[in-house]
Design brief:
The protein is mainly α and about 170 residues long. It is built from nine helices and no strands.
C-alpha cells in the first residue's frame, strides 16, 4: 500500500509541474485532445477501406478492438473510481470539464494508442507518426488537468495491448 501512496505523490507532483509548462503542446492541448474524441476512429478506417484491401481488415480490427477497449475502460474506471485532479487536489482547476467523473485510466489516451497500434500493425512504418499523435493526446489530457500522468500511462498500455491482442487474434 505504501508503494501506491508514493506513486500518487509523484503523480500529483508531476501533474503540477507539467501544468506550469508554456510549451507548444500546452497552448494547443484542447485541439489535440479533441482529435481523440472518436470521429477519427470511424472515418479513417472507412476511407482506407475504399483505397486498400488492408483497410478492410482495419475496419474489422477497429470494430472488435474498440468494442473490447470501451468495455474494459468503463469497468476499470467505474470500479477503481479514481478522482480527477480537480476533485483530488484542493485548489486545483482543470482547463476543461471532463465528460465523466473518474480519471483512471484515460479513455482518450487508451483509444488513441489503440488506434495508433492498429494503424501501425496494418500499414507498417508509414503509420509510425500515429504514435506521436497518441502521445500528444495523452499529454494534452494531463495539460488540460483532467488526468494524472499515470492515468495516461495505463491508458497507453491498455490501448496498445488490446491493439496487439485483437490483431493477433485476427491473424
Amino acid at each position: 500500500m505504501r508503494m501506491l501512496e508514493d506513486i500518487q505523490v509523484i503523480d500529483r507532483q508531476l501533474l503540477l509541474l507539467l501544468r506550469q509548462s508554456e510549451s507548444w503542446l500546452a497552448m494547443r492541448a484542447r485541439a489535440v485532445s479533441r482529435t481523440a474524441d472518436g470521429h477519427l476512429y470511424v472515418i479513417l478506417p472507412l476511407l482506407l477501406s475504399m483505397v486498400s484491401d488492408v483497410g478492410d481488415r482495419l475496419v474489422l480490427a477497429t470494430a472488435l478492438a474498440f468494442s473490447a477497449e470501451r468495455a474494459i475502460y468503463w469497468v476499470l474506471k467505474n470500479t477503481l473510481r479514481r478522482k480527477r485532479p480537480a476533485q483530488a487536489l484542493p485548489g486545483f482547476e482543470s482547463t476543461i470539464i471532463a465528460s465523466d467523473e473518474f480519471s483512471f485510466p484515460s479513455g482518450h489516451t487508451s483509444a488513441a494508442f489503440l488506434f495508433a497500434t492498429l494503424l501501425c500493425l496494418h500499414f507498417g512504418p508509414l503509420a509510425l507518426p500515429a504514435y506521436g499523435w497518441a502521445m500528444a493526446v495523452g499529454m494534452s489530457r494531463v495539460y488540460l488537468g483532467v488526468h494524472f500522468p499515470t492515468d495516461t500511462l495505463v491508458g497507453a498500455a491498455l490501448g496498445t495491448g488490446l491493439g496487439l491482442a485483437v490483431t493477433g487474434l485476427l491473424a
